[in-house]
Write a structure and sequence with these properties.
The protein contains 14 helices and 17 strands. It has helices at about 125-130, 145-150, 175-180, 180-195, 210-220, 240-250, 270-280, 310-315, 355-360, 375, 385-390, 395-400, 410-415, 425-440; strands spanning about 25, 30-35, 45, 55, 60, 70, 75-85, 90-100, 160-165, 200-205, 225-230, 265, 285-290, 300-305, 325-330, 335, 350-355.
Length: about 450
């Protein structure tokens, strides 16, 4: 019997339209918009000015806070200006705008296709390199990867978990990476094991990707301590706490991190980025992005430079369909509607989903019938219907007591509600308010 987590979860239609589409390289854009904050934590401090010439891979903003990440130019060209740009979150963020001139990379980057398996850096050197190269979690959270590798005093890492689940419907960027860059991902896994000081790693992949499971299982025979595990298909199994529960049956306590149970989780795409950072000295300035949708003419998986306008990706997929209702950054469950197709691709952009009007339209809102379905599917054991009411009534103190901050915003409650209540919208808003209250209280 395949492993999975026990509490809650749903199985929405998978719609993995692009799973057979090999990764293509998107042409370098004419202009890029690179925000200085593409990660959890403090924005990076800008190091360039208008008129400066830059190369691909050059450091253009430095993450100086403990939780922050370096930002590198994804192209070569001239800095047009520093300005605020609307990005995938819908907010304006300070960004560098670069006019592209050719495609010159920093000379320190190894651009050969040779797979480098010999790991020569020490534990401390690996963490330092990952920090320098601006690697963040590519599963969506964008937490700076080097910070995740710095195990707090008094805690001990026992196990590395590589998240190859990709449970969000439509998205296939990790799937394709595992098929096409499997050996590099395993070397990246070894690097992360050294950085954490662990001898065991588990790669979790849902059973709707049998080709990836078979491929990595065969490759893993040549790597000590790495095992590949097929998992039952169940959303949101890609969430850290649910994946840990599925693989090793350990419960991460409320408000705590995976290290509390001896585990550290990194995404498969992050593992590949770590490989490139450590073995190729390549900063994180490009990533694989799925562009998909039922009406998209040529959906696919593309290697895209950070800062590329989403409109360039849409053009490469055959243009914007006439029946477009929404353009979503990410998948249909946790993704957010983009305010414009001109927003830039950032480190956390795993996919662009173009939904038609029929799919994207809001259905008639009805009163809650207390059916309890939202409680049944909540993977965190919360009561979404109650949290919605508390937020509507601005009872944020009670919402905090009901553990609204534990919500991972997976959207399972929203998806299953027969009354079509916008549960996730209210809970997401209320969670933000409660976190703001907590920060003010702790000052």
């Amino acid at each position: 019997m395949l492993k999975t987590f026990k509490t809650g979860g749903v199985h929405p239609p998978e719609n993995k339209i692009t799973e057979k589409q090999a990764i293509k390289v998107l042409p370098v854009p004419a202009i890029v918009y690179i925000p200085f904050s593409q990660h959890l934590g403090a924005p990076a401090k800008v190091l360039v000015a208008k008129g400066d010439k830059v190369k691909a891979g050059q450091l253009i903003a430095k993450g100086e806070a403990f939780i922050s990440a370096n930002i590198h130019s994804s192209v070569s060209g001239k800095v047009q200006k520093i300005d605020e740009v609307i990005e995938t979150s819908g907010y304006r963020k300070p960004s560098v705008i670069i006019e592209v001139e050719g495609d010159v990379w920093d000379e320190s980057i190894d651009r050969s296709d040779r797979i480098s398996k010999d790991i020569i850096l020490s534990q401390k050197e690996i963490i330092k390199r990952i920090n320098e190269m601006g690697v963040v979690g590519l599963g969506g959270a964008t937490f700076p990867s080097h910070v995740k590798l710095m195990v707090p005093e008094g805690k001990k890492a026992e196990l590395l978990i590589i998240n190859g689940v990709e449970c969000e419907p439509y998205l296939t960027s990790d799937h394709r990476l595992m098929l096409e860059k499997g050996e590099e991902i395993l070397v990246g896994t070894q690097i992360l094991m050294i950085a954490l000081g662990v001898s065991k790693a588990m790669i979790g992949i849902e059973n709707n990707k049998p080709d990836a499971i078979a491929h990595l299982t065969e490759l893993a025979k040549n790597f000590n301590g790495i095992q590949v595990h097929g998992l039952k298909v169940k959303y949101p199994q890609g969430a850290e706490k649910q994946l840990i529960k599925a693989l090793v049956n350990r419960e991460v306590p409320s408000g705590k991190l995976p290290i509390e149970v001896g585990a550290v989780v990194h995404n498969a795409g992050t593992s590949f980025a770590v490989y490139e950072a450590v073995q190729k000295n390549k900063p994180l300035f490009e990533r694989v992005v799925t562009i998909t949708g039922k009406s998209v003419k040529n959906p696919g998986n593309f290697l895209v430079r950070i800062g590329t306008p989403v409109s360039d990706l849409i053009a490469a997929s055959g243009g914007l369909p006439e029946d477009t209702g929404k353009i979503i950054g990410g998948g249909p469950m946790m993704g957010k509607a983009l305010v414009s197709p001109e927003v830039p691709i950032v480190k956390g952009t795993s996919g662009i989903l173009i939904m038609n009007r029929e799919e994207s339209g809001r259905q008639e809102l009805k009163n809650c019938i207390r059916c309890g379905k939202c409680i049944t599917v909540c993977p965190m054991g919360l009561e979404p219907w109650l949290l919605e009411k508390l937020v509507i009534n601005e009872n944020f103190e009670k919402a905090e007591a009901e553990k609204i901050v534990d919500c991972m915003e997976c959207g399972s409650c929203h998806y299953t509600c027969p009354s079509k209540r916008p549960l996730l919208d209210y809970i997401r808003f209320g969670k933000g308010k409660v976190l703001q209250i907590i920060r003010t209280r702790n000052k």
